[in-house]
TrEMBL record:
Keywords: Cytoplasm, Hydrolase, Leucine-rich repeat, Manganese, Membrane, Metal-binding, Nucleus, Phosphoprotein, Protein phosphatase, Repeat. Its cofactor is Mn(2+). It is a peripheral membrane protein. PROSITE patterns: LRR, PPM_2. Residues 783-1031 form the PPM-type phosphatase domain. The keyword DNA-binding does not apply. One of its GO terms (cellular component) is membrane. Residues 1273-1288 have a biased composition (Polar residues). It holds the Pfam family LRR_8. One of its GO terms (molecular function) is metal ion binding. It comes from Scophthalmus maximus (Turbot). This is PH domain leucine-rich repeat-containing protein phosphatase 2. Protein phosphatase involved in regulation of Akt and PKC signaling. Mediates dephosphorylation in the C-terminal domain hydrophobic motif of members of the AGC Ser/Thr protein kinase family; specifically acts on 'Ser-473' of AKT1, 'Ser-660' of PRKCB isoform beta-II and 'Ser-657' of PRKCA. Akt regulates the balance between cell survival and apoptosis through a cascade that primarily alters the function of transcription factors that regulate pro- and antiapoptotic genes. Dephosphorylation of 'Ser-473' of Akt triggers apoptosis and decreases cell proliferation. SMART domains: LRR_BAC, LRR_TYP, PP2Cc.
Length: 1325
C-alpha cells in the first residue's frame, strides 16, 4: 500500500484548503473521507518494512458528516460502492447503509482518542491511511488474480501425436483443473476439463514458451499450450506446478478479500478441500455460498473469519463434509439442519457468541472433534453425552463457573477437558462416583480457591496454574505431570504416592516444606519449587535416583543436604537463598551435573570438583554471581574443564589466577563484573572459544589480551580505570560490540579508532566540553545511566531514549522500547517519540491527555512498519506543573506492554507502571475475551503476543490497543532514583532487589550495568534494557547548590574536528558556578543548552556507534593534527582526510522547541560578555548545537525555523539513504520513512556528504586585542581555497570590566557569511 509521506498523501494535503477547513469548523460530526482509487501495483513490494506495494492512486477528498451513508456518497459520485481496508490487510465492501465517517470516528475512538475535536483532526491526517483506508472501487491486485485464476487465448494442441493441429483456444487455469474451450474466445461450446492433481506439467523444448499439461491415471490426457510471452509462460508454469504437486485436491483461497469464489472453480469437481478463511463471503451471487453444494466431493470446508453473522444453512446440504470450520463469524445460533451432516467428524465453532446447541447436533455419531472455545456457554452442553465419539471437550474462554464432576462421569467418552479462562469458581463432587475416563484436565487462569480431584482416579496431567488455590487434593494412581504454579498452596495432598509422576511444577506458592510423598516418587525427573518459603530440602529428595532437574531458587534455604551416593542430577538451581556453603560432595557425587546456579547467596567458597587430581566433572554452566567468593575459588574451578559459561560477577575477587584460567580452554562466556580486579590474566588468550567477556565495574587498568581470540564477539570493559589500549595489527572479524564507557582516563589514538571502524557497536565516553556558562544552564537535579545487553539473541531489539534536559525548563524525558523479536519498531519509537511528546505539549497541559495522545500519534506514525510489528513502550516525563512552573516537580509515566518503571522512595520501591500482559492483568484478559480473540494455551493473543496493549501490531486490533496507562507521581526529597526496564529485566529481578542494587551502586551507569548483569546471571537469555535516573530533589523541589571550587583542566579548541594539545591545557582553581533551580533562577542566562553533558553528574556523555546513530563528515581539513604525538581525540574517528563524528540519535529537535534564544536578535557584545564572566563568548546565528548523553549534534548553515520543520535528528534534518548519504528534506517525507533507514546499516559508518566546517571563535584577552586585529586583516576571505590559519589561545580569567569591542564586520548580520561563527562543540573540546 501507499507509503507515508508519498506523493499521494501530499496531494491530499494540498487539496485540503479553506473550503474543507470551513466545513470542519464548529461541528465535530462533520469531517472528510479520503477515497483512494483501485489501482494496485502488480509488482511485488520492495524490501523493507515500509516498502510500497501501491503506486500512485487517484485521491478524492469527500466532505461528509457522520450521518452520511455509503449510498448517499455513491449517488453523489456516480459510484458503484465503497470499500474499507484495515491495517493494509483485507478489503471489505461497505453496505449501502453504513456510514464511512462514523466508521472512521469509531475506529479512532476504539484506539483511545477521547476528545471529539482531536478525533476530527486525526481523521483528516494522511498517515491514517496505513491504519484505515477507503477505496472508491475494489483494488485490482494482479498477483492475487494470478493465484486464484489464470486465463488467456493461446495456441493449443491436444494429445502427444501429430494428428491434432494447433489452434487458438481460450485456456483457463482455476482450482485444480485446466479448462480448454472448443472455440476461440468463448466458453459456449464444449469444454475440455483436465484434472491436474497428481499429473505433470513439463517444458516442451522443441517449441519456445510451450508447456505440456498431463492428467493423472491410466486414462491420462495431454494438452500442449504455446504462450506468447516469457512472462505468461513463467506465470502458468509456476501456478500449475503447485497444483500437480498436491497429494489431495485442495484449493486455498484464504486471505483474498473474496466475496465469492471464481465461477470457473465449479468446473473442478474433484475438489475435496476448500479453504476460504479470512474473506468476506456472501450468500448470494454466482460464486456465493449458496452454490457451494455444487462441489460433489467436498470433504473439508474452512469458512472461519468471514464476518458471516448467521450460520450458512446451505453448507448443511454438502452431505460429503467431514470437516467444517466456522470459527470467528459472530454466530449466535446453530440451525437444526446441522443434523444432516452425518459424515461430519470435526466441527469448529470457536470465537462466536453461542450459548446453546441444537439437540440435532447430538445425532452426529461420527463427530469426534467439537470446538466450542471462546463462546458464551454457562454450562457444559448436555447433548455431549450422546456424542460418544468426542474424546476432547474444548471449552476455554466461556462462562462456566461451576464444574459438576458427576456431569463428567456421565460423559464416559471424554478423556481431555479444557476449561481455561472460564472464571471457574467451584469444582463440585457431590457423589462418590468415580470419574475414571478423564486423563487430562486444564483449569488454568480461573478463580478456584480449593480443588479436590481425588475422584478422578485416572488423571495423568493437570494444569491449574494462576488460580487462588490454597489446597490441592489429587489421586496419584496414574498422575504423571502436575503444573500448579502461581497459586497460594501451602500443601499438596496426593494419595496414593504418585509413582508415575515425572514432572511437578509448584513455583510461586507458599510452601514452607515439601510433602513427604515427594521423596517417595520413584520416577520424578523434574521438580520446580522456586519462589516459595522453603527452609530446607529433604535429604532423600536430593539423593533420588530419578531426579534430573531441581529448581529451588528464591526460597529460604540455609543448607543443602550432602549427597550420599552418585545421583543422576543434571541441573540444579539454588539462586536467591541463604546458603553459606554447598555440599562438599556435590561435584564428585553428581557427575552428570551440567548446570548449576547458586547466585545471590552468601557463599564464601565452592566445593572441589573431585577428591583427587583427576576430575570427571561434566559441568558446563556455572553461575555464582552475588556471593562472597574470593580469588581462592579460581583454583577450585580448574577441575571443571568442560565449563562453557562462567558468571562470577559481584563477588570479592581481587585477582583471578592466571594459571587456572588457562585450563578452561572450552570457556565461551565469562562474566567477572563488579569485583576488584585490576587486570585480567593474559592467559585468557588460551580460551580459544571465548566469544563474550564482560568485566565492567572493576579496577582494570590494562586492556586484556583478548582481541586475538578467533571467536570473540562482545567485550564489555566499561566502568573501569583503563588508560590505554594495546591492539594487534588487525582485529577479529567476529568482534561486534565493544563497550569502553566509564573509563575516564582512557585516551585513544586515531590509529586505534580507525582500527575499531568495522565494529557494529562501539561505545566510548565523550570528553566534557562544558564551560562555566554551560554548567550554569545545563545543571539538572538528575543524571542517568543506561545499559543494553543482547543476551543470547542475535540482535538487540531494545532501544532507549534518555534526555536529561527536555525543552526549555527543568524537564527530562526517558523512554524504553522493547520489540521482543523485531528491532525496527523500537528504533522508530526511539527516533520519534520525544518529538511527538514535544508537539503534544503544545496542545494540552493535562498529563493524561498529552501522554495518551503521544502514544496514539506515535502508533499512527509507525506507518506500514506498525501493521505487523509492534513494541512495548514506556515513557517518563519529569516536569513542573504548567500552572505552577516554579512549584513541585512531577513524574508522569505512560506505558503499554511489559516495560516497567519503579521509583525508589525512602528506600522502598513504588511501582509507577501497569503490566499489560494477559497473565498479570485480569481486566485486560476479560476485555480481550469479550472481543472474541482466540487466546492460545501460552496466553498469547492469536498466538502472537502476550501483551494486550502495544504500539504497532495494528492488525491485531481491537484485541491489542495502543492506549497507554498514564500515572503522575509528585516528586519529593525522599525520591532517590527511578529505574526503568523491559520485561526481561523485571522478570528476573524483583522491584525490591532492583532498588537495593541501585542503592549500593550510586553511579547510575554502573547501577544499570549491574541490573542487566544480575538478570543474565539469574537465567535471562533475552534482550535486556535498563535505565537508572538518579534524582537530587530538595525540599519544595529546590535543586540549588552552593558554588564549589574544584580543580579541573580546561581546554580551548580551535576548529571543529581539531583537538587541543597538551600544551594548551592548564590546571588550577576553576570556579564551578552554582546550580540553580526554577524557584531560585540565576540572574543571567547563558546561550544554547548542552543537555546530558558529562559535567552535570556522575554519568559522562556517551559516544556510541551503532545503527541508531547519525554521522557528520567533513573533508575540509586534516583534523588539525600534524603528528601522532598530539593529543588524541575521543569520539572522533579519522579515515584519511575525512572526519566522522558519531552522533547519538537521542539528540532530538525538541531541544529547539521554543527557539527563543536562537531567534532572538544578537545581544550587544558588552552584554554578552557580562553573561559569561568565566566562560567563552559564543555566536548563535549560524550553528545549532544539541546534545544528549554527551553526544553532540551540530548542523551548520541552517536557520532555526528550518530546523523546526524536521523533528527527527536521526536523518540529520534530511532523508538518510540506506548507503548513509543524506539528501535535503522534502515536505512530503514522513518522519518514520526517514528514521526507518537507520536500522538497515549493520556495520561500518554512515558517511554524510561533506559540510563546510564552521570558523573558529576567537577567545581574545584584552592585552592581545590589537595584535589580533592586525592578524585578522591579513586573513584570506572565508570562501578562499587556501586553508585558514588556526588560532588557539588559552582562556584567561576575564577580570577586565568591559571586553573589547570587535570590528563591525565581525558581527553576524545580513550579507556575506561572517568570519566569526559560533564555536561548534564536539569531542575535541
Amino acid at each position: 500500500m501507499k507509503r507515508n509521506g508519498s506523493r499521494g498523501c501530499v496531494t491530499r494535503k494540498t487539496r485540503f484548503g479553506s473550503r474543507e477547513r470551513d466545513w470542519l469548523k464548529g461541528d465535530t460530526q462533520r469531517g472528510c473521507v479520503c477515497l483512494y482509487g483501485g489501482t494496485v501495483d502488480p509488482q511485488p513490494p520492495a524490501s523493507g518494512p515500509q516498502a510500497s506495494s501501491t503506486p500512485q492512486t487517484d485521491l478524492q477528498l469527500v466532505l461528509c458528516s457522520t450521518r452520511t451513508t455509503v449510498e448517499e456518497l455513491c449517488a453523489q459520485r456516480d459510484g458503484q460502492g465503497l470499500y474499507v481496508q484495515l491495517h493494509g490487510d483485507l478489503i471489505r465492501r461497505l453496505d449501502p447503509s453504513e456510514r464511512p465517517l462514523q466508521i472512521l470516528y469509531n475506529y479512532l475512538a476504539s484506539m483511545g482518542y477521547a476528545d471529539h475535536v482531536r478525533v476530527q483532526q486525526e481523521a483528516a491526517n494522511s498517515d491514517l491511511s496505513c491504519l484505515i483506508r477507503f477505496y472508491s472501487e475494489h483494488p485490482v491486485n494482479a498477483d492475487q488474480q494470478e493465484r486464484t485464476l489464470l486465463k488467456g487465448v493461446f495456441s493449443v494442441r491436444k494429445g502427444k501425436t501429430q494428428l491434432h493441429k494447433w489452434a487458438e483456444r481460450k485456456v483457463i487455469l482455476c482450482g485444480t483443473c485446466l479448462i480448454v474451450a472448443s472455440v476461440k474466445d468463448s466458453l459456449t461450446g464444449k469444454l475440455h476439463i483436465l484434472p491436474l492433481v497428481g499429473g505433470k506439467v513439463e517444458e516442451v523444448k522443441r517449441r519456445q514458451h510451450c508447456l505440456m499439461f498431463s492428467s493423472a491415471g491410466s486414462q491420462a490426457q495431454t494438452y500442449f499450450v504455446n504462450f506468447d510471452t516469457l512472462a505468461d509462460y513463467q506465470r502458468w508454469h509456476r501456478q500449475a506446478s503447485k497444483v500437480v504437486s498436491q497429494t489431495v485436491s485442495m484449493v486455498d483461497l484464504s486471505c483474498y478479500s473474496l466475496e465469492a469464489v471464481p465461477e470457473y472453480l465449479f468446473y473442478s469437481q474433484d475438489i475435496t478441500h476448500l479453504n476460504l478463511r479470512h474473506n468476506f463471503m456472501s450468500l448470494q451471487g454466482p460464486g456465493g455460498l449458496l452454490n457451494l453444494p455444487r462441489f460433489s466431493q467436498l470433504k473439508s470446508l474452512n469458512l472461519s473469519h468471514n464476518r458471516l453473522g448467521v450460520f450458512p444453512e446451505c453448507v448443511c446440504e454438502i452431505l460429503t463434509l467431514t470437516e467444517l470450520n466456522l470459527s470467528c463469524n459472530n454466530l449466535h445460533i446453530v440451525p437444526v439442519q446441522i443434523g444432516n451432516l452425518q459424515s461430519l467428524q470435526t466441527l469448529s465453532l470457536d470465537g462466536n457468541h453461542l450459548s446453546s446447541l441444537p439437540e440435532e447436533l447430538g445425532g452426529l455419531s461420527q463427530l469426534n472433534g467439537l470446538g466450542l472455545s471462546f463462546n458464551n456457554f454457562s454450562h457444559i452442553p448436555a447433548l455431549l453425552e450422546r456424542l460418544s465419539a468426542v474424546d476432547k471437550l474444548a471449552m476455554a474462554g466461556n462462562r462456566v463457573e461451576t464444574l459438576e464432576l458427576c456431569t463428567l462421569a456421565r460423559m464416559s467418552h471424554l478423556k481431555s477437558i479444557d476449561l481455561r479462562l472460564n472464571g471457574l469458581r467451584w469444582v463440585k463432587s457431590e457423589s462418590l462416583e468415580a470419574v475414571s475416563q478423564v486423563t487430562q484436565l486444564d483449569l488454568r487462569d480461573n478463580c478456584l480457591d480449593t480443588l479436590d480431584l481425588s475422584s478422578i482416579c485416572n488423571l495423568e496431567t493437570l494444569h491449574c496454574q494462576r488460580n487462588q488455590l490454597g489446597t490441592l487434593t489429587l489421586s496419584g494412581f496414574t498422575l504423571r505431570m502436575l503444573h500448579a504454579g502461581s497459586n497460594r498452596l501451602t500443601t499438596v495432598n496426593i494419595y496414593p504416592v504418585p509413582n508415575q509422576l515425572t514432572h511437578m511444577e509448584l513455583s510461586q506458592n507458599l510452601l514452607e516444606y515439601l510433602p513427604d510423598w515427594v521423596c517417595d516418587c520413584r520416577k520424578i525427573e523434574m521438580l520446580d519449587v522456586t519462589h516459595n518459603l522453603l527452609s530446607e530440602l529433604p535429604s532423600r529428595l536430593l539423593n533420588s535416583l530419578s531426579l534430573r532437574k531441581l529448581l529451588a531458587g528464591n526460597n529460604r534455604l540455609q543448607r543443602v543436604p550432602d549427597l550420599l551416593d552418585h545421583v543422576p542430577l543434571e541441573a540444579l538451581d539454588l539462586q536467591h537463598n541463604k546458603l553459606a556453603e554447598l555440599p562438599e560432595s556435590l561435584f564428585y557425587k553428581a557427575l552428570n551435573l551440567k548446570f548449576l546456579n547458586a547466585s545471590a547467596n552468601a557463599l564464601e567458597n565452592i566445593p572441589p570438583s573431585s577428591q583427587s587430581e583427576e576430575s570427571l566433572s561434566t559441568l558446563q554452566e556455572l553461575y555464582l554471581t552475588g556471593n562472597n567468593l574470593n580469588e581462592d575459588c579460581g583454583a577450585l574451578l580448574v577441575g571443571h574443564q568442560n565449563l562453557r559459561v562462567l558468571h562470577i560477577a559481584y563477588n570479592r575477587l581481587l585477582s583471578f589466577p592466571a594459571s587456572k584460567l588457562s585450563k578452561l580452554e572450552l570457556l565461551e562466556e565469562l562474566n567477572l563484573s563488579g569485583n576488584k580486579l585490576k587486570t585480567i590474566p593474559s592467559t585468557v588468550s588460551s580460551c580459544k572459544r571465548l566469544h563474550t567477556l564482560i568485566a565492567h565495574s572493576n579496577h582494570i587498568t590494562v586492556f586484556p589480551e583478548i582481541l586475538n581470540l578467533p571467536e570473540i564477539k562482545l567485550v564489555d570493559l566499561s566502568c573501569n580505570e583503563l588508560t590505554e589500549i594495546q591492539l594487534p595489527d588487525s582485529l577479529p572479524a567476529t568482534l561486534q560490540e565493544l563497550d569502553l564507557t566509564g573509563n575516564s582516563s582512557l585516551m585513544l589514538e586515531h590509529k586505534t579508532l580507525n582500527l575499531f571502524s568495522h565494529i557494529t557497536t562501539l561505545k566510548l565516553d565523550q570528553k566534557s566540553s562544558m564551560t562555566a556558562g554551560d554548567s550554569l544552564s545545563a545543571s539538572t537535579p538528575w543524571n542517568h545511566g543506561y545499559a543494553e545487553m543482547s543476551g543470547q539473541r542475535n540482535k538487540l531489539c531494545v532501544s532507549l531514549l534518555t534526555v536529561d534536559q527536555f525543552g526549555d525548563g527543568v524537564e527530562a524525558c526517558y523512554g524504553i522500547f522493547d520489540g521482543d523479536r523485531n528491532e525496527e519498531v523500537p528504533r522508530l519509537l526511539q527516533c520519534t517519540m520525544g518529538d511527538v511528546l514535544c508537539e503534544e505539549l503544545q496542545h494540552s497541559s493535562i498529563d493524561n491527555v498529552y501522554m495518551c495522545n503521544t502514544f496514539l500519534t506515535s502508533h499512527r506514525k509507525l506507518g506500514m512498519a506498525g501493521q505487523k510489528l509492534g513494541a512495548s513502550a514506556l515513557l517518563c516525563y519529569i516536569h513542573h506543573k504548567p500552572s505552577d512552573p516554579g512549584g513541585y516537580l512531577s513524574l508522569t509515566v505512560a506505558n503499554v506492554g511489559t516495560c516497567q518503571a519503579v521509583l525508589c522512595r525512602d528506600g522502598r520501591p513504588v511501582p509507577l507502571s501497569k503490566v499489560f500482559s494477559l497473565e498479570n492483568c485480569t481486566d485486560e484478559m476479560e476485555r480481550v475475551k469479550l472481543s472474541k480473540a482466540i487466546i492460545t494455551e501460552d496466553n498469547k493473543v492469536s498466538g502472537v503476543t502476550c501483551c494486550s496493549r502495544l504500539l504497532g501490531c495494528s492488525y491485531l486490533s481491537p484485541w491489542v490497543l495502543p492506549k497507554p496507562w498514564v500515572h503522575t507521581e509528585p516528586l519529593c526529597s525522599q525520591d532517590e532514583f527511578l529505574i526503568m526496564g523491559n520485561r526481561a529485566l523485571f522478570e528476573w529481578v524483583s522491584y525490591q532487589e532492583a532498588v537495593c542494587t541501585v542503592q549500593v551502586v550510586r553511579d547510575p551507569r554502573a547501577a544499570a550495568k549491574k541490573l542487566c548483569s544480575l538478570a543474565q546471571s539469574y537465567g535471562c537469555k533475552d534482550n535486556i534494557g535498563a535505565v537508572v535516573v538518579s534524582l537530587h530533589i530538595g525540599e519544595d523541589s529546590c535543586t540549588c547548590e552552593p558554588p564549589v571550587s574544584t580543580t579541573e583542566p580546561r581546554e580551548v579548541g580551535s576548529e571543529a574536528g581539531s583537538t587541543a594539545s597538551d600544551e594548551h591545557q592548564s590546571s588550577g582553581l576553576a570556579f564551578r558556578p552554582e546550580r540553580r533551580c526554577s524557584l531560585h533562577p540565576a540572574t543571567t542566562l547563558c546561550g544554547i543548552m548542552v543537555p546530558g553533558s558529562a559535567g552535570t553528574g556522575a554519568n559522562p556523555g556517551l559516544f556510541q556507534r551503532q545503527p541508531s546513530c547519525a554521522t557528520f563528515s567533513s573533508n575540509q581539513s586534516d583534523n588539525g593534527l600534524d603528528s601522532d604525538d598530539e593529543a588524541p581525540l575521543e569520539g572522533v574517528i579519522s579515515n584519511g582526510s575525512k572526519l566522522e563524528v558519531e552522533v547519538d540519535i537521542h539528540c532530538c529537535a525538541f531541544q529547539l522547541r521554543s527557539g527563543s534564544h536562537e531567534s532572538r536578535k544578537d545581544f550587544d557584545l558588552e552584554k554578552r560578555s557580562s553573561d559569561y564572566p568565566n566562560g567563552k563568548m559564543r555566536r548563535q546565528n549560524s550553528v545549532v548545537v544539541s546534545a544528549t548523553n554527551g553526544c553532540l549534534l551540530a548542523v551548520c548553515g541552517r536557520e532555526i525555523a528550518d530546523l523546526k520543520k524536521s523533528p527527527s535528528t536521526s536523518s540529520l534534518f534530511g532523508k538518510k539513504l540506506s548507503n548513509g548519504s543524506v539528501v535535503a528534506p522534502e515536505d512530503s517525507h514522513n518522519l518514520i520513512e526517514v528514521a526507518l533507514e537507520a536500522p538497515k546499516k549493520k556495520s561500518g559508518y554512515f558517511t554524510a556528504p561533506a559540510q563546510q566546517d564552521p570558523e573558529d571563535q576567537l577567545i581574545v584577552p584584552p592585552s592581545l586585542e590589537q595584535e589580533v586585529r592586525e592578524q585578522l586583516r591579513g586573513q584570506s576571505p572565508l570562501g578562499s581555497s587556501a586553508p585558514s590559519t588556526t588560532l588557539s589561545l588559552k582562556d584567561p580569567v576575564w577580570d577586565h570590566p568591559h571586553p573589547p569591542a570587535f570590528p563591525s564586520n565581525m558581527v553576524p548580520g545580513p550579507g556575506p557569511a561572517p568570519i566569526l561563527q559560533q564555536e561548534v562543540y564536539d569531542t575535541a573540546l
